[in-house]
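Batch manifest line 203
LIGAND: 5-O-phosphono-beta-D-ribofuranosylamine
JOB: complex structure
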Amino acid sequence: LKLGVLVSGRGSNLQALIDACRDPAFPAEIAVVISNRADAQAIARAEAAGIATAVIPHRQFASRADFDAAVDARLRQAEVALVCLAGFMRLLTTGFVAAWFDRMINIHPSLLPSFKGLHPQQQAIDAGVRLSGCTVHYVRDEMDAGPIIVQAMVPVLPDDDESRLADRILTAEHAAYPLAVRLIADGRVTVSGERTLVSGGGW
Ligand code: GRF
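JOB STATUS: finished
ARTIFACT:
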């Protein structure tokens, strides 16, 4: 399965996908990594791994639709079958979401539907929950919503601050994202309304 990974920053989830794809038995490969920021560490990670990259600076476009069209064209050029958002910090237009419907996934550092949006780890601490984690889900128009593919759970510890909890969740993310890609590539994920069915069990 050919992946297109959209990034804006550090790229640790991209790195987890790169590492997973190194295993010849992993049923996916990264065809292109696209960043809206030239200085993203994620771009350096992709280059180090010998993966094709594209920097598409959003400020160079008159509208979100024009920016999304450029991203779409690059994904199609690379014959991408599944788009993976991995710390991509731009909102996507309805048209782009529709064009990649059920073929675009995102990872979010909370157990959705709790704590959508920015600073979900701080939101979890502020809410006093004892468990948090991450969610890989299909992308819909509403931010951080859509059929859930994989979730992983971590404890929230009494002396956690945002950064400690974020680190613990990130470790879980690095296992969850490759797992979600593998389940999809193996044809084990079916979208049914607002849910997915995963054959043969999730983990
Ligand atoms: C991750 O926590 C991801 O869940 C969120 O943004 C962060 C990206 O980190 N969407 P990285 O760039 O993958 O290191």
